[in-house]
Amino acid sequence: xxxxxxxxxxxxxxxxxxxxxxxxxxxxxxxxxxxxxxxxxxxxxxxxxxxxxxxxxxxxxxxxxxxxxxxxxxxxxxxxxxxxxxxxxxxxxxxxxxxxxxxxxxxxxxxxxxxxxxxxxxxxxxxxxxxxxxxxxxxxxxxxxxxxxxxxxxxxxxxxxxxxxxxxxxxxxxxxxxxxxxxxxxxxxxxxxxxxxxxxxxxxxxxxxxxxxxxxxxxxxxxxxxxxxxxxxxxxxxxxxxxxxxxxxxxxxxxxxxxxxxxxxxxxxxxxxxxxxxxxx
Length: 281
Hints:
There is one protein chain. The chain has helices at residues 4-27, 31-43, 52-68, 73-87, 92-95, 118-133, 136-160, 164-176, 183-186, 189-209, 214-230, 233-237, 252-258, 260-273; strands at 241-242, 249-250. The protein has 281 residues and is an all-alpha fold. The chain has one domain (73-273). The protein has a two-stranded antiparallel ribbon with strand order 1-2. The protein is globular, with a radius of gyration of 19 Å. The relative contact order is 0.12.
């Protein structure tokens, strides 16, 4: 049986995953997303499927419904399907031009930064599904996927902070945020990016050392979770939404940013399921 802390973490994770799915599902019914998916399909030689974007939107809304009624057997099946589909975008790392040629290509990642977040998203979805389905071994493996997904994002994106291209790319985001704008009062654009990169890599070291030491695990999760939560301010401060459809819709930047809500959920799940008796350090 889950303890109270784990029960609350699971409820919060369902809510955060639902917010991500609901807000991005609305975009799937727009011409912009329809064109985006047609373009991505053309890169790998697939025919134009103008209905694909709307179909994904319907799937996401269906998953949102299952998160509201997670104990239904149908809900776990839908969540498992979504978890598998959430891994599909990562294949674009092999098929699409997501690398920065001026920095030598791989591992200098450009547009693929949003793709690598899907590993943790798949893990969180599978964890919720396996919990309510009673699949304990799959639940444990899902937690490992979440852990790996968080490390992948923090390591890769953190490492990119040591490049001028990434420093320039994040300046507008950071300078408009009430949580991060102070950095440019202390550092230059490049050195401010270095500072953020160091913080993100410290989270990676904490999570890796956390396999042995609880204190390091707590440190890594705190840094990672704080980062993922604080980035949500970019949606308002940038802003990363637009009103041309008569109601708020996320821009492409907003869809990139709001994925961090699910990574934040992953941090909460990992923290809530650790055993304080495993070690005392």
